[in-house]
Design goal:
8-stranded antiparallel beta sheet, 3-stranded antiparallel beta sheet, 16 strands, about 25% helix, single chain, alpha+beta
C-alpha cells in the first residue's frame, strides 16, 4: 500500500515538473524571446558575458575544456565554440555515413510509407517536414534518424560523408522547444518550427541524403558556411536556394546558435549502424548509417 502511494507521489511530482518545464519554455512569446536571446547573447560586455555564461552553466554542463579557446567575447561566442583539433574522431570507412553533430538519438528507424515518428504515439507526415513531394517519394521505405542537440553540447554540424549540398530550402516557422517534454505534447512539432531542408548528394553511389536542421526556442539563427545569408526569423530572401557546395566527410557545414535538432533522411538500402537507438548519446563523426552494398 505504502509502495503504491509513494509511486503515485513520485509520478505526480514528475508530471508537475514536466508541466512547469513545458509552461516555462513554450507558453511564453517564443519568437520574441528567441530574437531577444539572439541580441543579448552577442553583447560583448565582460560583466554580462561572465554572468550569462555562469547562469547558463548552472542549468547545463558544457565541456569547455575541449574548446579551442578559453576566452570568449560573449555568450554567443561560447555557444558556437570550435573544438580543439582532434577532439572528435571521424570514421573514415567509405561504407559508413557519420553523425553530423553531437546529439542524443531520438526516434529513428524505417520510414513507414510517408510517415515517421516524432515521439511515441506522435507520427508526422514526411511531406509536412520536407515540403518537397519528390523527396517524400524518394525516402519511402528508407531510414530516418532524429538527432537532438542539448544546450550544453557542441553546436556545430559537419558533413556526414563526401558529397555536395545541391539545394537549401528555408522554411520559416515557430520556435517550439524541441526537448522530449514538448515532443510528447505538441503534434507535428518539427513541421511547425523554423528549419532548413538540405538536399545533399553523396559522391558514393550518387545517393540523395537530406539533412533538416530544425530551430528551437532561443535558437536565434542557423548559419551555413556555403550561403552568404544568415537564416533566421527575419530572413526575407529566397526560400529555395540552389547551390553546389562540395564537402569532404567531417568538414564543417555550419552551426546552431543554441541546442536544437537535425533530422536525417536516407533512401531504401541504408541501415542504422549498430547501437543507434532512441536515447543513445552520439558524437559527431561516429557511425550513424551504413550505405547500401555496391553491386
Amino acid at each position: 500500500m505504502n509502495v503504491a502511494m509513494n509511486l503515485r507521489s513520485v509520478l505526480a511530482q514528475v508530471a508537475t515538473q514536466e508541466d512547469l518545464n513545458f509552461l516555462l519554455t513554450n507558453r511564453i512569446p517564443r519568437q520574441l524571446t528567441t530574437q531577444f536571446m539572439g541580441w543579448f547573447s552577442k553583447i560583448e560586455n565582460p560583466i554580462i558575458r561572465d554572468l550569462s555564461i555562469g547562469v547558463w552553466r548552472l542549468f547545463a554542463d558544457p565541456d569547455l575544456e575541449e574548446a579551442a579557446k578559453t576566452d570568449f567575447t560573449s555568450l554567443h561566442d561560447c555557444f558556437i565554440r570550435e573544438l580543439k583539433p582532434g577532439a572528435r574522431a571521424f570514421d573514415l570507412d567509405p561504407a559508413v555515413m557519420v553523425s553530423p553533430c553531437d546529439a542524443i538519438v531520438g526516434a529513428c528507424g524505417d520510414i513507414a510509407g510517408t510517415e515517421v515518428i516524432q515521439a511515441k504515439g506522435f507520427p508526422y507526415a514526411v511531406q509536412d517536414l520536407l515540403i518537397d513531394p519528390e523527396l517524400v517519394q524518394h525516402y519511402r521505405g528508407g531510414q530516418y534518424v532524429t538527432l537532438r542537440l542539448t544546450s550544453s553540447m557542441y553546436h556545430r554540424f559537419h558533413a556526414p560523408h563526401d558529397g555536395r549540398v545541391e539545394r537549401a530550402t528555408y522554411v520559416s516557422g515557430d520556435t517550439w522547444n524541441t526537448n522530449p517534454i514538448a515532443l510528447k505534447r505538441v503534434e507535428r512539432l518539427f513541421c511547425k518550427n523554423e528549419r532548413v531542408v538540405l538536399r545533399t548528394r553523396l559522391d558514393a553511389g550518387n545517393h540523395l541524403i537530406t539533412l533538416v536542421p530544425v530551430a528551437s526556442i532561443l535558437v536565434a539563427s542557423i548559419r551555413l558556411h556555403f550561403l552568404n545569408v544568415l537564416l533566421h526569423l527575419k530572413h526575407r530572401g529566397p526560400n529555395v536556394i540552389e547551390c553546389d557546395a562540395r564537402f569532404r566527410k567531417g568538414e564543417e557545414l555550419g552551426w546552431f546558435e543554441l541546442g536544437s535538432t537535425i533530422v536525417v533522411f536516407a533512401p531504401k538500402g541504408f541501415a542504422l549502424c549498430e547501437g543507434i537507438t532512441d536515447g543513445q548519446v552520439i558524437q559527431v563523426g561516429q557511425p550513424l548509417l551504413r550505405l547500401p552494398k555496391s553491386r
